[in-house]
Amino acid sequence: MGCFHSKVKKKLRGHEDPVVLASQTAFSVSEVEALFELFKSISSSVIDDGLISKEEFQLALFKNRKKENLFANRIFDLFDVKQKGLIDFGDFVRGLHVFHPNAPQEEKMNFSFKLYDLDGTGFIERQEVKQMLIALLCESEMKLADETIESILDKTFVEADTNQDGKIDKSEWQIFVGRNPSLLKIMTLPYLRDITTTFPSFVFHSEVDEVAT
Amino acid sequence: TCLNAFDIISLSPGFDLSSLFEKD
């Protein structure tokens, strides 16, 4: 048992306690441990340092190291709450928590607002939305005339920017999302319900089992 | 052009974290 014990301790050494992370999120302790299996695999894909770099995050998302993606970068930056340029295990679990089907809608709404508020001013500005639209069109190799893009922006801001000041604030976003619930679809990952079956090997590294024995 | 800008933006694969869970 001594050998197994030291191996288990090594696996989570330096990372936040799964029991504490479970208490802060929609995940059970077993699910946090299963997420550690995923975290290990992503964080060791380029440099095995127990942290996820932007390059490793992108590699896990796109299976290649192609050019930077604005949207993947936004998610990475929001997971990286301490702005270290790296995601630790706690950041990873708390970030994914927002995407759990059971996470509160308000957390999903706040996260999505930050996602689109590129410069972090507390407002989603028309210029930011245009920048994201152009980035999306570029990455999907679609072309739209500038007047078509402006027309899409006009329509969106007529609906969302109710006080017509040219930017969307948090309360306007809340109302807009309420009318367009599909906007929060990207904020829910059904996979997170089945994380323990996707990564069953967590059982062999379980801290909880270790405590029980 | 009756599309909503955010619905279009959300189509980016960069926002689709489900690929994190796909094993090679």
Automatic annotation (TrEMBL), chain A:
PROSITE patterns named among the record's database cross-references: EF_HAND_1, EF_HAND_2
Keywords annotated in UniProt: Calcium, Membrane, Metal-binding, Repeat
A single GO molecular function term of this UniProt record: kinase binding
This protein's GO CC annotations: membrane
Key word Flavoprotein present: no
CDD domains in UniProt: EFh (cd00051)
InterPro entries (alphabetical): CNBL1-10, EF-hand-dom_pair, EF_Hand_1_Ca_BS, EF_hand_dom
Subcellular compartments: Membrane
Pfam families per record: EF-hand_7
Domain EF-hand: 67-102, 104-139, 148-183
Keyword Amino-acid biosynthesis: no
GO aspect biological process, one term: calcium-mediated signaling
SUPFAM superfamilies listed in its UniProt record: EF-hand
Subunit structure: Homodimer. Interacts with CIPK.
Function summary: Acts as a calcium sensor. CBL proteins interact with CIPK serine-threonine protein kinases. Binding of a CBL protein to the regulatory NAF domain of a CIPK protein lead to the activation of the kinase in a calcium-dependent manner.
Membership in a protein family: Belongs to the calcineurin regulatory subunit family.
Protein name per Swiss-Prot or TrEMBL: Calcineurin B-like protein
Record organism: Nicotiana attenuata (Coyote tobacco)
